[in-house]
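I am still getting used to backbone structure tokens and would like to learn alongside you. To get us started, please write out a protein record for me. Once you have written the record down, we can walk along the chain together.
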Amino acid sequence: MTRRGWRVGLASVAWLLSIGSPLAGQTEGSFGVGASLVKYDGFLASGAVVFAPALRFDSPRLSFAGQGSWTVFESGRGVIQGNAATAWLAGARGSWRLELSGAAGASEYAGAHAAGLLLAGARLHVFATTSGGWIGANVGQSFGGPVGTPVETVVAGWSVRNRLALVGSATATWQGQIRHLDLVAAMRWTGPRMELEARAGARPWAQNPEGAVTEAYGEITAVMPLSRWFAVSLGGGKYPSDPVRQILGATYLNAGVRLRAFGRPAPSVPVHTTSVLGGRRVPTEESGPPLELEGSAERRTLRVRASDATSVELMGDFTDWVPVQLARVAPAVWEVTLAVPAGVHRVNIRLNGGPWSAPGGARLERTEFGGVVGIVVAP
């Protein structure tokens, strides 16, 4: 590893730790360490150690995620990589939502070969109670890689049923003389003690100066939280080359641990596994009271019906995770009026000063550190 590599790796960790405290509650930082056996296309298999700091920021309209990685191979050579992406939820019309996004990435191998990428894109989303989809496009500029302007178009759909989320997508990519089509199916299952993600894909059509390449691939990852601050993961599989992002295809097997460095951990609550949309709710397992939403994005009424409550509080991404007190407006009926943008939101409630929990009828989302929040969709 070069001196420059050491400086970049240490600087990434220092930067994450330095900015975390002022944004606690909206920002989460973590640091991962793992061991991997990897075989890149055209290279021999090699063992490696990976260090990966990560940062995520969420607000009702804006999200940001960044991750750096420093991979050291058996040969002593290393790869420094950094990626960042941001998304802004812009206008809304009924169940439709416009998202604008940007991404940047850079990598350096053995202190010599360097490559980078800038991408800008847009997606048009449609939301229903337990399903939805989007259509989008990305365009950008790459450095140190294939000649030509990278362009991607994608159409995708998703569905959520209890603990299982399914996503299917078709992505067409071209950059100069390199062109391919990827068809991918992915699933995410959230259990009480483990989260499992898997995807299977195929590249049925491809062309490049070296000849057409078609292939199938797949990956699976299991994340097991041991506490709110510590999680272990196991994963393996095969992923294809991505010329737009300067990624070589590889087959791999890895194991690692991840430590939350800062950020308010999500509360640990019972599992609730159904969905809610705008006050319409479906039968649920034994759980806390449901959350109902009425009105428009600028002025939305949030309602909880709880006959035995003496106080009701709510917090979510639209309150910057600051607790908000609901007022009793009728026997067993509690309400508050807030600005809640249309789209998907994370939220928890609590009664009588007790533990925070996902609303009854809200889909469960479990973080990699074992916290759980409820997912609701505001139309």
In short: The helical segments are 3-20.
